[in-house]
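input
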Amino acid sequence: MEFLRGFKQTKSVDAARTPSFNRRIVASVAVVGIAAGGMLIPATAGASTSVTGSKASVVLSGKTYKLSGGACVVTGSRVDIGIGTKTNSLGINAKVKGGKFSNAQIGMVLGGKPVAITSDTGTATSKGGTFKGTDVVSNSTVKGTFTC
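output
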């Protein structure tokens, strides 16, 4: 693997002692990295992009989190969002069809703790959208809105 060139393994890894991981969670947390960085570049012409005015509201376990800053890119077929700061952020990466999406990569950091959503659905337009899903850690329903 090209990206590992130059790295040397210093310890052997005991597969029996290495914890397994859920790839969907890892992908969602990677999306959170986009949210924490707050920078997205549209890959297609005609994309609706907001770099400074993006906002989101997320409800988890009865608590509402307000997020702002970052970037929001919505096209007719994709939504890529990175909104918030290191302690509260939202990242969404989804294919959109007919203004709706499902099973997107959605990851968050809320109150400094990671949240990964599965079994999600949502809507997206050039002005914003909604999402709803289940947090894999707490098994709680998470829902929210975003504006671009």
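quick obs: Residues 32 and 91 are 5 Å apart (CA to CA).
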